[in-house]
Amino acid sequence: MSTLTRYSAIPYTGPAPTNRAPYVPKNAEPANARGEAIATTLGNAAMTQERGQDMPTFLVERARIADVLRNLAENPDLAFILPLDCFGTDYPDREERFDVVYQLYSLKNNERIRLKVRVGENDTVPTSTGVFKSFDWFEREVFDMFGVRFEGHPNMRRILCHEAFQGHALRKDYDPAQRWILTEQNVARIIPKIDPRFATEDTDFERVTLNLGPSHPATHGTLRIVVTLDGEKIIGADAEIGYLHRCFEKMSETHTYQQVIPYTDRLNYCSAIINNVGYALAVEKLLGIEAPARAQQVRLMLSEFWRIADHIVCISANLVDIGALTNYWYLMQPREEIIGLTEACSGARLLPSYVRVGGLAVDVPSNFLEQAQRLVDMLPRYIDDVEKLIWKNRIFRERVQGVAVISKEDAINFGFTGPCLRACGVPYDVRKASPYIGYETYDWDVPIAEGGDTYARFLVRFEEMRQSLRILQQAIDRGLPAGPVIVDNPYVALPPKSKVYNEMESLIYHFKLIMHGIQPPVGETYFQVEGGNGELGFYVVSDGTKNPYRVRVRPPCFPLFEAFGQMITGQTIPDAIGALGSLNIIAGELDH
Amino acid sequence: MAITRVAPGIVRVERQPLTFSQRLYIPQILAGMMVTLGHLLKNLVNMKRMLIISYPEVKRVYSERFRGRHILTSREDGTTRCVACFMCSTACPAECITIEAGEDERTREKFPVRYDIDLLRCIFCGYCVDACPEDAIYMTRDYEMAIDTRARAVVGLRDLVVPPNFPVDPMGYRPYYGKIQKSGTAGGTGVGQPLRQAPFDDDTAPNPELYRGGNA
Predict the structure, then answer these.
(1) Single pTM value for the model
(2) Chain A contact for B124, CB < 8 A?
(3) Are the beta carbons of A326 and B36 separated by less than 8 Å?
(4) What kind of fold does domain A28-151 have according to CATH?
(5) B93 touches chain A (CB under 8 A)
(6) Hey, where are the domains in chain A?
(7) Domains of chain B: which residue ranges?
(8) Environment class of residue A528 by beta-carbon count within 10 Å: exposed (0-12), middle (13-18) or buried (19+)?
(9) What is the ipTM of this complex?
């Protein structure tokens, strides 16, 4: 059969993109039932359930949100103890125009919950920093982007935008092209609060305030940490972010669904494919479509390769920080091979933009599996060699053991996910907890470690690379399923070029799709994937037009870096640098 | 690394304390040095297999999908294939393409009088190639685009348009369409124009049979 006859599904008989019924997720009914059960268990009158969502969703009275969050966390049957996200959405036509959305996760029951608070322009919301420390920065971000004030927040100032910025960028009436210039005299001076443990200590040393970053070789990205030193000991630390803020969320609102994909590349640029996959899956969930099996497996394989590459960057850069330069040069070689494989598939090395909503941009090269097998055979040697160099090395051990410890409770309260949470002994991995693109069909284990220090994070990352290799080997053994790599739906995917050149109908679909974009039904959804350093979530709201109404990315680095100040207080500067590397903070994702 | 299974699907990586012999400083340093020394000797003996590319004397070869600098292809009679339909500039997420359209008085066909790509804005995502319904814009494997002024980053028709028989060799990301049946003046090429012909033979596309799953 020729390529031409294979795709003769035209005229397309599926639903047209406009005037469709609002989006109702597949799991809406169980979510509604579960929501009722939660409401009964909690018995809190401040909540009303919002039905037809992809997870139990409640509208909460503004004044009582902190109580509701506390109840949810402290109820032993529910135990929503992991704060995932807190963000705003703007609906200017409504009387109370802002939604502040909270998302929590229960490690015990493996379920999620979404709470919404409606806020008018002049209202304030009680802060929930007393319940979840994580929401300190998240609330600051909501204030920065929407101007919603949180009553009782200890440090209500901008976080991503600079001091000379006027207005609130994610409000719908804010012009996306508006720019503000920051001059030197406007820069606010940051003086970190001194930790009470050390405040009264009387020493002979003078206290010094020191800036690490924003352009410092040890920060691996434009991060700034202001520390107060007592001799060599850090007695207070404050982190300042936003130096790489590129308005990802605002720009998504001015571009079509397909055009957002290159933007997602630039979130975590050490594992760009995983961002592509997460975003594409979120939009596919909204559209109610599923990519073909071949595309799903390629997505999975490339995600795992890039997870290894992400860990390689983290481990090798971290080893440079603590003085082991050899490993860095050595480990860059397998990463280069992974980049080479990606380039052979997509045409770009670091920012592939390979995934499309509905599948992949083009099919993989014919020797993809052989190349993947070569990589899988090659990688263990590199991992073993680096292990040989560091594992039994006393200098390395003493630099990392017991450094920058975070307890299990603190890590959960700060909203840690990914390897950093697993290094505290919590076996939470999105790939196991809510499997996507077929992770449930592979035989692999979630590695955990005890201790929560830099050493434990090393242990987890090394083992995770091995587990990823296990998944990859199984995927290669299965072989790629035959078939197309993108859905055969002209309202979502461009028709093949051979038809565009030769058929009027396809040419029309081609023009329509480029000019009017994908138009998902009205609704909202959230989809999470396991990124290189934690849960990467995309919350997408559609108003039925070609541009997303709101795209929210849940960056896993954000809560990690938030806890960093606490983690390094009481340590020395070299230990702090080692700890920063082990958290794997990627500025592009942190600042979205 | 010692690994203990704590539950189905969960393994714990154990923290192993260093033994006495491992705590000895000098022997362990020497043992570590041996690993590095082994690599050094291996590289000295076999210099050709050293993992180094001496750029710019040696250049890396990229795949046929490499997304480098753009070109605009031409028809056999030398006119540009682009019909100024603005699809590429609409699809461009970085808004780096500026087009001004003109009309040929004889054939009544649109063509670009101005076609500028700002290479500093361009993010090389390949969306313009995907969007082009006229087979007009391709990407090459040219990745050396160093410039000394911002103004030079804006390339126009003069830099982009290539002659009809442009060689296949430097081509990068371009539509893969396998063996197409050329019929009539398909795809809006216009009246009186010669039949569409790709500047290279269709069969030389990287994986003609594999485009979107191929012939299953």
Answers:
(1) 0.87
(2) yes
(3) yes
(4) Beta Polymerase; domain 2 (3.30.460)
(5) yes
(6) 28-151, 187-240, 248-591
(7) 18-52, 62-188
(8) buried
(9) 0.81
